Request: fold
Amino acid sequence: MPTYVYACRACGHRFDAVQSIHDDSLEACPECTGSLRRVFGSVGVTFKGSGFYRTDSRAAAAKESSGS
Reply:
């Protein structure tokens, strides 16, 4: 199950919550009962360049094996 980060709009309290994708978002802060917002972070992994697709690696491997 995914872990979501929530922050309170009133007091700034931040915490993690493990929830199903189908669960409703949390609405009340456990510290002050203020309203919450879900915090979205940046993506941790970025794939750039060639070599990340099945066809990229097979084309190079086929050329090397036929040339030997």
